[in-house]
Amino acid sequence: xxxxxxVVRAQACCAGATAVxxxxxxxxxxxxxxxxxxxxxxxxxxxxxxxxxxxxxxxxEADVEQDLFAAIRxxxxxxxxxxxxxxxxxxxxxxxGSHMGGGIGDTNASIRYDFIRAGESSRIPGLALLGGLTIxxxxxxxxxxxxxxxDATGIGAFQGSLAVAVEQALGAWLVNATAIVxxxxxxxGETLGTQWTFLTAxxxxxxxxxxxxxxxxxxxxxxxxxxxxxxxxxxxxxLTTVMLSGLWPVTDSWRLQATASVEPPIGGVGxxxxxxxxxxVTTIHSWQ
Length: 288
Prior knowledge:
Number of domains: 1
Strand content: over 45%
Helix content: under 10%
CATH topology: Porin
Structural class: mainly beta
Radius of gyration: 20 Å
Distance between the termini: 16 Å
CATH superfamily: monomeric porin ompg
CATH architecture: Beta Barrel
Number of strands: 17
CATH class: Mainly Beta
């Protein structure tokens, strides 16, 4: 069946919200399970001072990730989600040749509670509180054994996060702003700096329930610290990512999403990070 129920059409903000966050339950859903497949190619790096440099001739890195995730309704306005990734990496240099590796990545559990839903009030925007825990089920870079560390699939440390999301539905439009703070436990004699991420998104839902979303995120973390508490100079990192997503509700219970993302190949938008571009395709089945 390709038609959609009137209930779904009356909730245009749901399509816009799920276009921004694929694993999020729509208002009429109680449970979902999905699979996201992403492929990305590194096209350069951001130096410590923010200068962008394209990848050297002969150097190559490609990353593929498959994320299996599920979410379930909790206390009406809440939802709990679990994500398990599988990561593969291909790296090549003229000196070391080409190597491929991969494995299970870091598992993430999260919770969301919407105190006010988008569109409930014309004056007060929707407000949600989120929390997350990342479990180091993947292999950290310092534990990698394969050449060029292609078998590294995680950060190697427990990570906790808190977030506040504000969003409002304006007719067929949805505007979202989210702030996230994450803290990692010590690992391998050092502790990564506190990470801050800011996400903004604008989504439009068409009368036939398809949706488009344009979003941008900026993440920053301070210098890492050594075991004695001293800061490790020039170890802070930042990254800007721009994403365009499209959502297609195939039936009332199945939907597809495609996303293109890029970390811009210009200076000043990142530090101490690789820059990549990629695409992802997500398929989701839900139950009401």
